Structure formats: structure tokens, C-alpha cells
Amino acid sequence: MTNSSTGNRRRAALLLAAVLAAPLLSGCGSTGAGAGAEVRASAPASRPAVDPAQVAATAKATAAFGLDLLHALTAKPDDAGRNLVVSPTGLATVLAMVLPGARGATADELAKALHTELDPKQYALAVGASDQQAKNGDQVTLRQSDQVWTQQGFPVEPDYLATLAADFDAGVHTTDFKNDPEGSRKAVNAAVEKATEGRIKDLFAPKAINPDTRLVLTDALYLKAKWASEFKPSHTEDRPFHKLDGTAANVSTMSRTGEFKYADGSGGILGEPWQAIELPYAGGNLAMDLIVPAQGGFAAFTKELDQPELDRILGALAEQPVDLQLPRFHFDTSDELTPALRSLGVHSAFDNADLSGIAKDQPLAVSTVVQKATVQVDEEGTVAAAGSGVGIGVAAAPAPQQAAQLHIDRPFLFLIRDTSGGRPLFLGQVVDPQAK
């Protein structure tokens, strides 16, 4: 990367990548498979106390950031008509790992995009506290892990590494980006692939990591969760799904009638009618929310949906019988996110970055931001390379009432969140359940 003001002098490039629920911040160069011996950064023996109010506010901010990202990635007509899954938690985490090293306008723009007014170290602490809430069991697995890859001999500030170690429990690996960038790329990609149980492969494309790379940060998020009550495969049938272009196709559709948290309505800034339902996963604190605008209203609804309206919809959910039909779906998303982040006001990180909190007297700049994500939903539950879910508590038995009908035969939005803290692990849209 060349700085026009310094002729042929190279600037050290800082690569940032997010893997759906597994984000990755990549820097210049890395060695091959033999590189990457882990070195523990000096960190406090115990994590600093975290203000629960700051954790809650950060979860809400991450939801707002996720919706901004969804809007940015679907702003063009061609993009609006595709299946999409992103991990707000994944990308917010990797940006939270950058933020303590940013200064001036670089820090201000990142904080604004992330919807936070917290001090960078407080924000990192709050995000890290949420990320450490791993869940492992027979029916639910939710893991998130962070790694730092640095060029051998590159003078990263000890305080910066200590922050990453303390707040994100990040392992630090030294490598040689300068002399073996391709081997380094393969080593970083292999670590992400392993952390996501093979779901995210080749996060960094060939030449994405080059001899100028100095630092790579990775955050891998993996979710495998069974529904609290599974769909019966014998009830799955091909049913029509009406796509955005007005055509219909028969898709494999699951069905189940039972007690769910459900709401419907219209009005507000959204205007368009909608239906929403929450499907809990086993374990009680992860769930998938489905929001289904009326036929023909998907584009207008999605464009206007913001975090306060999302809160209003989720807050309206209440237990009642529902006759539910839901298409099976399985697809991947891969995006270079630099244009999206620029549209959210993040410019200086790429152009005239001040990342002196990472390394003093070393000109650094973010050179790429990428995210890969995958989500699979079937009769048993969900597998995603990232995680988000909601749990439903047992409510008092309601008076008998007629079952609401939610036959999802048209484009819809989905959100996987942790209902105990509100963290949005995954967010996306399904416009064609058959598309990969």
C-alpha cells in the first residue's frame, strides 16, 4: 500500500476480517503452517469488573450496527434480491479489538459506526464479557474465540496486546508475513476453519495477505443448536414460496403447530403489515426470531427497520398457539465489507488511519474487511458459523385461543440472538430458500 505523500515508502497494512460469527482482523503477512506458535500476552490475573448496564447497552448497540450493515449490504437492487447472513456480534467483536488501538478520527468513526459512546477500553471489556459466555452441551454448542497474529519482530504495544488478552482472552501468535505471506494466509485460514468446525473455509482469498501485512486479528464464532421442540420430518412437504420477482417455486417446508411467542401488526415508521415468531433452542437462552412482512412489502419494510422498531416487534411477542410453516434453508455469504463500512462513516481507518495505540511510529491502515458466514436451518435446529439465539421461559397457561397462522411462503428476515443478554449473533434475510 503506497502513501502518495511519501513516494515509494510502504505503509504497513492492517487487514481486518470478520467470519460471520467469526471475524478476522488481518495484518500484513504471516508464515506457513509451521508458524504461529502461541505466546500469551501479559494480562491481569482476573478480568476487570464489568458494568452489566454497559454490557446491555453494547448488545443493543450491536443490534443497531447489524441493521445498519444489513441496509448497507442490500442497498443496491441486485444485492437486495439475494439471501444474506451476517454476524453483527462477529464484526463488532473484531472492530472492538481494533478500537483500543485507534486514536483521533479513526477511533471516533469506528465508535460512531458501532453506536457506542463508551471509552474504547470499556467498550472492548463489555464486548469481550458477552463473547465469553460460551454454551456447551448435548443440544447447544456456542463458542467464540479470538486470535492475534503478528509479524515477527513487529513492535506491537504491550498495553494493546494486554487489552486483547484480558478482554477477549485472545491468544497471540508470531509469524512471518514478510517472507511467506501465502503460508501465513493458509495458517490463518486453517485456524478459522478449525474454530468453526470446518464451516468457514478460505476466509482470506489468495493475495489478501501480503508481505506488507503486520497484524491479523481473528474471532471465530460457531453455533450448533437443536430446537426446544423439533419439527417432525414426516410433516415436511414441498410448498409454494413466492419470491421477490413475483414468481413461485416449490420448496421443502417444515410445519408444526404449538405454543410460540408470536406477534403481528403494522404502523409505526414501518407502515407495512408484519408477522413475527420466536423459535427457542434447547437450553432456554438462545432463539431464532423470524419477521415476515406482508406479500409485496418486504423491500419497504426491510429498508425502514431500525433498532427501536426491532425492539418494539420483539417486545410484542407473546405466547399463543401458532400454525407454523417454515422453509428449510442453507446458504453461505461472503462479503468484502470495506464499502459497507465506508457507507457507515468509517473512512479514516482505511485512508489516513491513526492506529498508534497498536504500534507507535509505525504507519498502519486497515486494508480489507471481509466476512464469511453460513447458516443451515432444518427440522433438528440450526448450525451457523457464528452464533445467536433466544430462549423462551415457561409462561402461565393461557386461556384457550385460536391458533394464529404463519405460513412463511414469502421473503423474511431472521435473527439469532442470546435472549439472556440480547446479543444479536446472526442477522439475515431469506428471499429464496433454494438458493445457496
How does the SSE layout of this entry go?
Layout: E1 12-18, E2 24-25, E3 38-39, H1 52-73, H2 77-80, E4 84-86, H3 88-98, H4 104-113, H5 120-131, E5 135-136, E6 140-151, H6 158-168, E7 171-175, H7 181-195, E8 213-226, E9 237-242, E10 248-267, E11 271-280, E12 286-293, H8 298-304, H9 307-316, E13 318-327, E14 329-336, H10 338-343, E15 364-377, E16 381-384, E17 404-407, E18 412-418, E19 423-430
Parallel strand pairs: 1-8, 1-15, 6-7, 13-17
Antiparallel strand pairs: 2-8, 3-7, 4-19, 5-6, 6-8, 8-16, 9-10, 10-11, 10-13, 11-12, 12-18, 14-15, 15-16, 18-19
Short description:
With 436 residues, this protein is of the alpha+beta class. The chain folds into 2 domains: 6-222 and 332-375, Antithrombin, subunit I, domain 2 (Antithrombin, Chain I, domain 2); 233-330 and 377-430, Alpha-1-antitrypsin, domain 1. 25% of the residues lie in helices and 33% in strands.
What do you see in this structure?
It is a single chain. The chain has 436 residues and is of the alpha+beta class. It folds into two domains: 6-222 and 332-375, Antithrombin, Chain I, domain 2 (2-Layer Sandwich); 233-330 and 377-430, Alpha-1-antitrypsin, domain 1 (Roll). 25% of the residues lie in helices and 33% in strands. The protein has ten helices and 19 strands. The protein has helices at 52-73, 77-80, 88-98, 104-113, 120-131, 158-168, 181-195, 298-304, 307-316, 338-343; strands at residues 12-18, 24-25, 38-39, 84-86, 135-136, 140-151, 171-175, 213-226, 237-242, 248-267, 271-280, 286-293, 318-327, 329-336, 364-377, 381-384, 404-407, 412-418, 423-430. Strand 9 and strand 10 (248-267) form a beta hairpin. Residues 1-11, 17-37 and 385-400 have low confidence and may be disordered.
